[in-house]
Amino acid sequence: MFLLAVAVFFPAVAYSQNPASGGCPRPIAGSEVIAPAEITSHNGVLQVALSLRSSLQPTGQLRYCYVDESGNQSPTLRVHPGDLLILKLKNELPNISISTLSPLQVRQNPCAKFNMPLQMQPSSTNLHFHGLMIPPTCHQDDVLNTLIQPQTASYDYRVRIPRSQPPGLYWYHPHPHGHSEEQVLGGASGALIVEGIERFDSQLAGLPERLLVIRDQARPSVQSEDDPKYGTGLKPPSKDLSVNFIPVPFPNYPPAIIKTKPSQRELWRVLNASADTFLDLHLLTNRKWTLLGLVALDGVPLNYEQTGSKTKNRSNRTDNIVQWVSDIPIPPGGRAEFLFDSPTEGGQAQLLTAGVDTVPSAGEDEDAFFAAPSAKPSTPDDDDYTPPRWLLRVVSALDAPGPVSRLPTAFSPAQKRPIPALGSVHPNRQRTLYFSEKVFDPKNPRVSTVFYLTEDGQQPSPFNPAAAPNITVRSGEVEDWVIENRSQEIHTFHIHQAHFLVLERDGEPVEENYLRDSVSLPYWDGVSPHYPSVKLRIDFRDPAIVGTFPYHCHILQHEDGGMMGTIQVLPRAARKTKLLDNLSGRTYQGEARIPGARLNSAPVEIARTCAKPSLLTVDGDGARLARSSSSFAPEVFAAAGRF
Ligand SMILES: [Cu+2]
């Protein structure tokens, strides 16, 4: 491990650009951390209008930002399960076309079936609600066909947060294939919190909470790498990092500052909104390594899968969610929520990220790395070099400001999930997919590497928006996917619209009984007979998730470079409509009528069916069950005379 010298100073919050100027102003390095503005739902509805803007800095970086009507950048959206989110997105990016299409050929209908890759302009955009279990359809969470062109009318997203959405930290970001990296790297991202995490562990109730959005950003093109203040002695990172937009730049990595009350337990919600950069969070408290109390990953409480069996008696703390860990790796796109115990008065803590090996040549031995920086010219360029660096310095003081928000103290414990735990379900089938890369020009790997994510047995090809889905499953199914990394570079598997369990790593079972939406695979060393692998159990049982959506590497440079495929979830197989008259014992199939059946009371209580109420009608002559539609499979159990 490493230590960095840190100067003690508290610059006032200052912006490197006037917020009124209409660009994407950002705080200066070393500022005190400020929580993003929060927009909460009212009466079950959260309405927000965001504009996506960009501005070019004198240092050569292109910034992107979501700005709300009050001028806040990247507001945090706070919703409850069941809420309706209405987000109006205006694309205010400059209309720069790289294609030869005329303006008329660039489609104006954001939901049109997408057939022409050239229509994806650098200034096209869309939104992905990362981790939400919402349908992959236009105006909800479709990134394959939705393209909002610059300077067109606002586009409405209308999203119903599922009642079964696990409570925790999610996020929104653009996902236009080929241009996702640039927009996210520029800062286009924001957090979305689904309320209710305290329902999964009573010890979370009432805790102060702190949201930290870590982003990466292009390094200034004009900065000299032989800066006399050369901090760590390590070579420059491929990207700088920021904390709630406060940059922590090479070479000295001045940490962002948090002032907090002494000896206070807080819930920290950390989003790695980096386009390409991995985090591996460590905490030093008064110069000693300190454990972090992990409570949720990727928005899902760690005990979500076991919920119900341990929540009957809250007083005995058997609902303990917390896993105390020495570090928390977070891939690009991942989230971690953990307990942080602030130092005693006058004490300090430092949050830092350790170095992450992204390719074999950037091994643990930094000397060897510097001695032979291009030892493997045939492997991809290490353009994700990720050295260790500071992120935050926490100072405890009695006069520190109170938290922006606290978790509720009153809550109802989480209810048992109505479906079997994913780990207990027998999978319908197993597949193998693999990450691979091809370098077409070994002398210029950075611009000639094509990235693939392929089902074993298929021909590797980079993502093609016009191609048919690569994989087809049926709603209601569960699949085991073995993901292999056959490339000499780290990758992060992410699938939209679904969560998964990690069952095995490198063929060995792992005890990870929690759900994720992203998982990292280390690089292949080029010689081992077995590729690094994970075995995932992926859940396609959610009846709302029908349609086509992507799975991809969440290093967005790789995704833009082709490392993405699509999966189509077909509607549930139509089962025969069944109506059981449990007075006569007779079963009716298909369209049926039970003479004489009537209801004792209104409104109709159909507690034991999964039929749409409209399929079951009751009148003076009895009950009638309509034939089910192909996309819906009712199974109705009813008693004549007393449903
Ligand atoms: Cu990748």
Structure description:
- By secondary structure, the protein is mainly beta.
- The protein starts with about 35 loop residues before the first strand and ends in a 5-residue tail after the last strand.
- The protein has 4 helices and 42 strands.
- It has 4 domains: about 160 residues, Immunoglobulin-like (Sandwich), CATH 2.60.40; about 210 residues, Sandwich (Immunoglobulin-like); about 150 residues, Immunoglobulin-like (Sandwich), CATH 2.60.40.420; about 60 residues, no CATH class.
- Strands 10, 11, 12, 14, 17, 18, 19, 21 and 24 form a 9-stranded mixed beta sheet that branches.
- The N terminus and C terminus are likely disordered.
- The structure holds copper (II) ion.
- Copper (II) ion binds next to loops.
Descriptive labels:
4 domains, 7-stranded mixed beta sheet, 643 residues, Immunoglobulin-like, 3% helix, disordered N terminus, 9-stranded mixed beta sheet, binds copper (II) ion, globular
